[in-house]
Hints:
Blueprint: E1 5-8, H1 9-22, E2 28-34, E3 37-44, H2 58-70, E4 74-82, H3 91-101, E5 106-111, E6 119-126, E7 129-133, E8 135-138
Parallel strand pairs: 1-8, 4-5
Antiparallel strand pairs: 2-3, 2-4, 5-6, 6-7
Amino acid sequence: MTAAIRIGREHLDAMIAHAREDAPIECCGLVAARDGRVAALYRARNMEASPYRFRVDPLETKRLCEAMEDEGLELAGFYHSHTGSEAIPSPTDIRMMGPLFGPPYVHFVVGLKDPTRPDVRVWYIEDGDRSEQTYALEP
């Protein structure tokens, strides 16, 4: 994928706020889009309640996807936080997110290694590998 993911400041800030609120537990959620632009975020509960991994209940994912469809949105991807490390998918993230959800979804990772300077990066995970993507911040 070469096109930058388009996201507004309000959605980027909402991911960061969610990560900070749930710390030290990893937060997680779904990313919805319309016309190639992030249009909404759907917070999810981390079933693992862990600072090292996350898992979204498949029934909750189904319910949130139905809510997206009701709003005329499509599932674009997922987000989660790393409360003590860089915003890079871990080997566990790659194992979980690749085959479970599959491409072409984007995966935003909010790094809170330094909580005063959160780092948000976006990735595609496919075939057991990760590739960093760019995002275009829009007003």
